[in-house]
Design a protein that fits this description.
The structure holds two protein chains of two kinds. Chain A is an all-alpha fold. Helix content of chain A is 71%, strand content 2%. Chain A is globular. Chain B has seven helices and eleven strands. In chain B, 36% of the residues are buried. Classes of the chains: A mainly alpha, B alpha+beta. At the A-B interface, loops of A face α3, α4 and β7 of B.
Amino acid sequence: MPEITGFAFPNDIHVHWSLMIVMYPYITGFVAGSFIVTSLYHVFGRQEFKPIARLSLAASFCFLLIAALPLQLHLGHPERGFNVMITPNFSSAMAGFGLLYSTYLVIVALEVWFVWRQDIIESARRSRGWKRTFYAVLALGTYDTSREAQEVDHKVITVLAGIGLPMACMLHGYVGFIFGAIKANPWWSSPLMPVIFLLSAAVSGIALLTVVYQAVSKMRRVPAEARLVSAMARWLWFFLILTITLELLEIIMLGYEKSEPWHIISELLTTRLEFSFITVQMIIGGLIPMILLGIVVMMNAYLHERLRNALSVASALLLLLQVFSMRWNVVIGGQLLSKSLRGLRSPYTPELFDREGVLVALALFITPFVLLWVFDRILPIYKPGEAERSPAGEAQARTDAARA
Amino acid sequence: MSEETRPAEGETAPCDAGRRDFLEQGIRLAGGAVVFLTSARAAASSAPSENPLSGGYDWNEHRYAYVIDTEKCIGCGSCVRACRAENDVPAGFYRTWIERYVVGPEGSFVDSPSGGIDGFPPAQTGIAATKSFFVPKMCMHCKSTPCVQVCPVGASYRTRDGVVMVDDKSCIGCGYCVQACPYGSRFLNPTTHTAEKCTWCYHRITKGLRPACVEVCPTGTRMFGDMKKEDDPVRKIIERERVGILQPHLLTEPQCFYLHLDKEVR
């Protein structure tokens, strides 16, 4: 039985939304954040992001594939989970999930297909036996690699990315909405919530790709591109500043207004969430990376490549922690506080082996990386002879040149 | 020999029959689904008024309301015990509970040991109390209820006679309604893994009985009535007395009203 300080409504002492509901926004955050990175190249034409455009699209796709899994694991009746899609009650924000998720999945899958189409065709032509059949099926019967076809591909990719970007923002903004629109809970109820979720999704996506890109470069034994690393650090810093500002603003507003729930929220932050909010979310995960990234951004010209890489990866890792703690503090924090606004329950510790436990959460975090590895086996993210030499790469290089 | 062949025949025969059956049933099912999907909406809108519930009960003829007079409650816990017995409420969870308020000039103390099921032992509050009282709590059966709004599959609903209920056959156990209820009236049942709450003992009231908590209340703190009956005492109280509701700023329109509600109560 959890211990209660003050008075909690007797039904308010249970943490019904546990670790899986922390993992859910964490994972969809990566989906949206990675898509923002890929769109920086595909939609906004930021050339420095070209080396990571395919990697980030693949990462977004792989995280998206398991994004619904934590929800399914959380449900009391997982066998009825699909009913959210087939018999939705549209007055519920949660009912929008099926629609948003499946539409976005289709868009990302289509974009993946168009981006890798040339590679699929090439693989189908080069290989034999079942492998040939497999790629032939993936190619969906079109083997057109003419210049015109490639230009059409490119246009379609831009349009898909253009539709996908608002969809990604909505998919994740929606997660923030789920919490932000609960008027019963003053720690959640705020119109800023979807915005904060969205900005921290951008932070987590860029941070994740910073780490993955450096790791992939190490594995491929090629140097990480300095232009890309600095650009990622710059965007990461920008989104971090926005996120932290809004996260703090929300709390400062409550405190300055001396609004009704402030006394209990301040107690929540300084007792139950002292470590996870003040220490991790604000200092270790907020202030320190802000300083480190500030160094990378403002002293870029003076930094040795290795120092720049090290600083960005260190900040990115801290930011992955920051975003996780933000999800934790919102989801779990909101349930430690009773709606009586008179009491807090003792901190929640997840089980290790539970269906919603730590091991499952770890597995959920690792699975997309395994999927990414499989993805790379089937549709290579980087080609051995550098992208520019392949027909697709040439087409891209040409259109890039045309755009520039 | 015959023993060896028989199973083979036995295997093939049901297999053919199985396929045929499967196809037949599949076609029937598909046809059924079409009929169901086209008629469900029409049926849903027309059924209630035409087919009153069993025993001649018509939910269009009632609109229930509840009144709690906090001056009268003695914190005996009979209502909590009766609710547990009547509705098989799992231990540690509450469809109704009682809160004790001890209020003095320098602050207030609130508790609800085990929801007040065993009454209230004397409390060492450290407050020089100037007033003290009990407040029974339960689902407010709100007219504009957030729990029904947020249910993603429509398992939470409000009946025409004004009772908020959960269909445990379709509840997916997501817990969104539990989070959305400002009064802490809902919980996820650890056995059925579905949302659960006070139903005003719907199985009783539709037979003309009173909810169990009202039935056993020794002081008349808890009153249950019908707003569609002219001379209903509860209706008279709500219409003529100064009644309060919990958390009015949330605009949930509770149908559970309080007499002599103190500002300390949320």
